């Protein structure tokens, strides 16, 4: 499985960086180092061209080295490199906020800026608690997440998150409870939304019975779970969560860090699945991943509640924010990226081509018996691989490494392989990716 890397790094340099979500010991024996990127391809330090099968980390739907975005950032850095985020502002943050509202459901028209998806989740959960306090319902503090959910790496994100490996090391988190995930038996190999599993939304009623709505601030779910391997909501499931939240005065948060801005073949997951939450968290694609940025969209009523109860006008209505909230470079990158998604009609392109994508990924069903499930929506797909010697993550690791050797970057995590090609992917590139996967499945089986 090994490939030769002409890394110029010394062992000391490799050791100095404790890498994020990485098997550091394995990586440092055989580093996979990327030197440059353009369009849909990386070039590694061996000079090999590698197809970007996950659009970075679900970030770069527009591909890499996009001239318009690069120019916008360059111009910005030469004009205003940093602007204090608190009590002073710069014009581009307001332009970007308005631009983001063009992608959000109409009612979610107040945008708060953060530096990442994890900070967006923190922001959404803090505002949910504070909102109820403002409403005189200060006992509403508990959160409900979902098994297999991913909501970032912060203390709040791991608490509401539902991927066991991300939780077990870290002890006590926030007071959070979890809905079951929606991968119901019989839903395997569903194309797009499954007809099986929507009844699992009823579990929210059990949690409400157990904890009482008077103690619950919000339910947070990804409309389509990304990190756990592309788990698409069953038909009717999100609608039912919305209905129960409405009936019990519980805020509904969609974590759209992966699903917002085109990946679902729509402006948001909310639009794709036809359900409007009270709060949407986003990050990644907002700047095409080029400058770190996150944001949270709130229903106007939530914003108004804070303004109306904010005290004297010089007072802060919400004591919350980040040094890098609305960073000028991120705002410039965001405006350029979102303009491109609109003018190039990329969400529409994803929708149009998603049938071809679906056909291609589901053709892998017959590649090898170790493929036990395939799921897809928009330009996303998750493939579940049967475990090897009782180890669920072994084969996905082997597959990803073999794909890297063949010149394809794909994501592996848990028992799945995840795919998310750029919005501008060509059919021939999809075919090459799928052929390489089929070959690799046979190799490692
Ligand atoms: N919420 C969701 C739904 C996410 O997918 C975060 C929050 C956290 O965002 P930051 O920017 O703090 O990482 C995420 C991030 C993968 C993968 O391959 C997914 C994420 C991050 C890295 C890898 O599935 N999601
Ligand atoms: N820790 C210290 C000591 C700080 O001064 C700050 C910000 O001023 C933070 C953490 C938070 O950093 P950020 O605003 O980048 O999230």
TrEMBL record:
Its EC number is 2.6.1.18. It comes from the Bacteria. Pfam families: Aminotran_3 (PF00202). Its cofactor is pyridoxal 5'-phosphate. InterPro entries: Aminotrans_3, Aminotrans_3_PPA_site, PyrdxlP-dep_Trfase, PyrdxlP-dep_Trfase_major, PyrdxlP-dep_Trfase_small. The keyword Glycoprotein does not apply. Belongs to the class-III pyridoxal-phosphate-dependent aminotransferase family. This is Beta-alanine--pyruvate transaminase. It comes from Marinomonas mediterranea (strain ATCC 700492 / JCM 21426 / NBRC 103028 / MMB-1).
